[in-house]
Write a structure and sequence with these properties.
The two termini are 32 Å apart. Helices cover 37% and strands 25% of the residues. A hairpin with a 2-residue loop joins strand 5 and strand 6. It has a nine-stranded mixed sheet, with helices on both faces. It has a five-stranded mixed sheet with strand order 25-24-26-27-28, with helices on both faces. Strands 2-3-8-7 form a four-stranded antiparallel sheet. It is built from 18 helices and 28 strands. By secondary structure, the protein is α+β, with helices and mostly antiparallel strands. It has three domains: 2-174, Threonyl-tRNA Synthetase, Chain A, domain 2, CATH 3.30.980.10; 187-476, Bira Bifunctional Protein, Domain 2 (BirA Bifunctional Protein, domain 2, 2-Layer Sandwich); 489-581, Rossmann fold. Zn(2+) binds at residues 277, 328, 458. Its cofactor is Zn(2+). It comes from Candidatus Lloydbacteria bacterium RIFCSPHIGHO2_02_FULL_54_17. One of its GO terms (molecular function) is threonine-tRNA ligase activity.
């Protein structure tokens, strides 16, 4: 059953966005107002100031907002027509632009008033500002943002705020943000030597080091291990395609602004692929299929490319080159449930292995008021969404209703995970697509010898290796489990007399497939141990006189401290068991 949203907290945050606009007008009476939506942890508002605010100005605006809260101002809304709106928002060009657009689209126009301030807004507020805890919100930062997200439009000043139901919740969130700074994947990724960026290569194009590549490949191998057991086959496609492929699939019309385009010397237009599904559809279509061949499951880990705005690029979480662990299932309608449930099982096993114990699902469906954003017909969407809804009911449990979150070609089951800091983010996705198979004429022959349109299921477990790795670094604080760590064991001889036995241990570990760092340098033991801790290596073997004399190994765990002495074979068995179990 659907999970109901927390409307009260949403309304508090939305009301605070209005109060921020009131404070901004007090700071700069000539300010032009943009939009002020709610975010996952608060709100923001976009402004065009005549004088740039500073961090001190932000503090003053926050004080003004608290005064407005304490005045217990009522929030009242009413319907308006376009003519009244033009009078109300005279001198506010951004509001007038929205007003004209909404009126053209036939939307109901509403204005909300608090004190002497009126804003163009669809609603969702507290009835009285006295319902807001005056110590449970905070203005946090100033950023730049283009009006409506386009670099062709004026750049505005965006002010962000946090807001919660109580001061305790705000303090907990602020503590989490401080911890998140320490775990920032950009900071830890550099310290652990996993990836780098180069100005010569370009922003948003990460370069993976040998250590980082180990992590990438192990993650991908794990996904493939789970898929292979369920009948998937690997395929390989090129990184560019003729424009015609995406015109047929429907992507060119809906997605062309986000494509990297290539024009050949002969004048032919190509694109760097932003997704793989149309290519995989061509592999499926290359040979006739009957019901006996169905389902067909293709898997490929490959890069796709999207022309993101430079200001939106951030570490591994927003990049130009995205490595997708992508897969597409071509099946009959009667096979949809079994195929989606098999993917769901993979998602559960994969994320469970990393300790993402709190997971939820979102039913991401289309927005019927903006049907021009989607491929196909309302009837096709009704059938696809009905199939997804039935599956979620059969699987059991609650789900979030994600109106407007569907892909352009079909509804999705999006998986949301909560990390060790309590942050929720989207991870895997399963998408049901009736539209692309129709566009490409993908069919199989049924038992009666008739042509039957196939259905396409899109599924990505990590979604993006870059984004998943960033999340995993922050979730674990860089303390990867043994099987995934680029270096699994550090062998540290205390002095020259211990080199031979330490080297023997290191070689035995390597022979069993472990990734070992053997430190033969004549540095102090303290310096070596500090380096091991900084690199977050799971296990350390220190070799001194006692170890050489006993031919025993003293093992220390990154997470559990000293574990005592082990004979070599017992140590190898202990480590092998942990690595195999992926715990």
């Amino acid at each position: 059953m659907p999970i109901m949203p927390d409307d009260k907290l949403h309304n508090i945050r939305h009301t605070l966005a209005h109060l921020l606009a009131m404070a901004a007008k007090e700071f700069d009476p000539a300010v032009k107002l943009g939009i002020g939506p709610v975010t996952d942890d608060g709100f923001y508002y976009d402004f065009q100031f005549t004088k740039a605010p500073t961090s001190d100005d932000l503090k003053e605006m926050e004080k003004t907002m608290r005064k407005l809260v304490n005045k217990k101002l009522p929030m009242g809304g009413r319907e308006i027509d376009k003519a009244e709106g033009e009078k109300l928002f005279s001198g506010q060009p951004f509001k007038l632009e929205l007003l004209a657009e909404y009126a053209t689209e036939g939307k109901t126009l509403t204005a909300y008033t608090s004190g002497d301030f009126t804003d163009l807004c669809k609603g969702g507020h507290v009835e009285n500002t006295g319902e807001i805890a005056a110590d449970a919100f905070k203005l946090t930062r100033i950023a730049g943002a283009y009006w409506r997200g386009s670099e062709k439009n004026p750049q505005l000043t965006r002010i962000y705020g946090l807001a919660f139901s109580s001061r305790k919740e705000l303090d907990l969130h602020l503590h989490m943000l401080e911890e998140a700074k320490k775990r920032d994947h950009r900071k830890l990724g550099k310290e652990l030597g996993l990836f780098v960026f180069s100005d010569l290569v370009g922003a948003g194009l990460p370069l993976w080091t040998p250590k980082g590549t180990i992590v990438r490949e192990l993650l991908n191998d794990y996904v493939w291990e789970l898929r292979k057991a369920r009948g998937y086959q690997k395929v390989t496609i090129p990184h560019i395609t003729r424009k015609a492929l995406y015109e047929t699939s429907g992507h060119w019309k809906k997605f062309s602004d986000e494509l990297f385009r290539i024009t050949t010397r002969e004048g032919h237009e190509y694109a760097m692929k932003p997704m793989n599904c149309p290519h995989h559809a061509q592999i499926f279509a290359a040979e006739p299929k009957s019901y006996r061949d169905m389902p067909v499951r293709y898997s490929e880990t490959t890069m796709v490319y999207r022309d993101e705005q430079s200001g939106e690029l951030s570490g591994l979480t927003r990049v130009l080159s995205i490595t997708q662990d992508d897969a597409h299932v071509f099946c009959r309608e009667s096979q949809i449930a079994d195929e989606i449930f098999a993917i769901w099982d993979i998602v559960d096993e994969f994320y469970g292995a990393f300790g993402y114990t709190e997971r939820r699902v979102r039913f991401s469906r289309h927005d019927p008021e903006k049907f021009e954003k989607y491929l196909g017909t309302p009837d096709i969407w009704k059938k696809a969404e009905g199939a997804i809804r039935d599956l979620m009911t059969k699987r059991g449990g609650e789900y979030i209703d994600g109106a407007g979150e569907a892909a352009m070609y079909g509804p999705k089951i999006d998986f949301l995970a909560k990390d060790s800091l309590g942050r929720t983010f989207q991870v895997a996705t399963i998408q049901l697509d009736f539209n692309q198979p129709a566009n490409f004429g993908l069919v199989s022959t049924n038992e009666k010898g008739e042509k039957e349109q196939v259905v396409m299921i899109h599924c990505a477990i990590m979604g993006s290796i870059e984004r998943f790795t960033a999340a995993l670094i922050e979730h674990t604080g860089g303390n990867f489990p043994l099987w995934l760590s680029p270096v699994q064991v550090a062998v540290l001889p205390i002095g020259e007399a211990h080199l031979a036995f330490a080297g023997e241990i290191a070689e035995k570990l390597k022979d069993r497939g472990f990734r070992v760092e053997f430190s033969a340098e004549s540095e102090s033991l303290g310096k070596k141990v500090r380096w091991v801790k900084m690199q977050k290596i799971p296990y350390t073997v220190v070799v001194g006189d006692a170890e050489v004399a006993k031919k025993a190994i003293t093992l220390e765990s990154r997470d559990k401290g000293k574990l005592g002495e082990f004979p070599l074979e017992e140590l190898l068995h202990f480590l092998q068991e942990e690595a195999t179990a992926k715990r």
